[in-house]
Amino acid sequence: MLNRIRRILAAAFFLLITLLFLDFTGTLHGFLGWMAKVQFLPAVLAVNVVVIIALIVLTLLFGRIYCSVICPLGVFQDVVAWIASKRKKNRYTYSPAVNWLRYIMLVVMVVAIVLGIGSLVALLAPYSSYGRIAQNLFQPVWELGNNVLASIAERMDSYTFYHVDVWIKSTPVFLIAALTFVIVGWLAWRNGRTYCNTICPVGTVLGFFSRFSLLKVYFDEGKCKNCSLCTKNCKASCIDYKTHQVDYSRCVACGKCITKCKFDALKYGIKLKKAQVETTESPDKEQVDGAKRSFLMGLALATTAVIAQEKKKVDGGLAAIEEKVAPERQTPITPPGSWSANNMARKCTGCQLCVSECPNQVLRPSTGLMTIMQPVMSYERGYCRPECTRCSEVCPTGAIQSVTREEKAEIQIGHAVVIKKNCISLRDEVDCGNCARHCPVGAIEMVPSDPDDEESFMIPSVNEMTCIGCGACENLCPARPFSAIYVEGHEVHKSL
Fold this sequence. Notes:
With about 500 residues, this protein is an alpha+beta fold.
């Protein structure tokens, strides 16, 4: 019963949090956004005391069930291990904990957080590692499937689905995600939870608390026949059947050993020093029923959230348009609500949830050495619409703090800069003014290119005091491949 309940809850968490990353319409976040915020490291970086205490108490009560139920990378390893078990059964062996490596990884993570080395934090964060896999590897496949359905629906005069652009937002981050998928998958295929119990800093922290958990897997030595089935089926390699010992710092309370034991020699319950014990075959019935109700309610809400938002695109009609090229920005642009590059570097784990949720294709992973995988803004495919606050709504770490539409319209994340030689008014001697017409805050006005000749062609002039850096001017500038106006980011944002 324990193993069955765990698998149901783990499957629910894994499926729904994957859908959260795959969803490009933004309709699922209202139902599933909490799943990102109950992940351990994001909660720590967001200083979400309630979630941190809840997860620690959960671990002190039941052991490391966070790793086998809530953490998507942990469940991903279980899925791979389950597939591998179809090829070869009873394939695991007991191995002592590699504590020196576990604690080195934990120290590296803590130092990286303190020093604000976001790229290192992003590489070690388990939730973020799975987020990158889902966003870079799974989402394109999901979008291609959506486009196939959109083509079919279009032939039937239905607009239930709509076409979306499928593109790689960052080649280096795509390669990192693919490499993570291969390495973690290979380790899980070979040895189950090797990554979880030797590299993952979150597993090390929760492993410390799980040593003192109230409910544990333990041996009834009088019934044990030393058949070794428990050890051979333990993905965490933490059961030594010869000494009847379980390493609780690595046990994720999956219940597989109990299921495989033919002699009822393994129990999950309160382990006392004496022979007299109080056993628990499964969590309290009321808790189980509550978990099932929560799962079914979340699933029902998720399946009803199918309203797709209208995609707006300025494509210049049917003319073939040369693709824009991103300018060389001296200061990268970070999203409204991040407030500063320093805050982004210290708190962002590069999970890519904001990137996958951005409806305007503005956010993409940074390729900078110290900020790689953290989101930056660029306006070749769209601009940051003042009415959109989705990235601030989904961020689980506080790297992008929640802002209202009114607040966002007054946040200056950068300012526009004019490159006169690229302006088609001067280059092609035609009237334009596209940037001024589409500026949502009226920060651009057209002035004569020659101050002494009012009849000269008009070029844009930017009021840096009122420009918010939304990128509408850069995105909608008809100059190709480089815009005649682009946005330079600010290290520290300010409210106008």
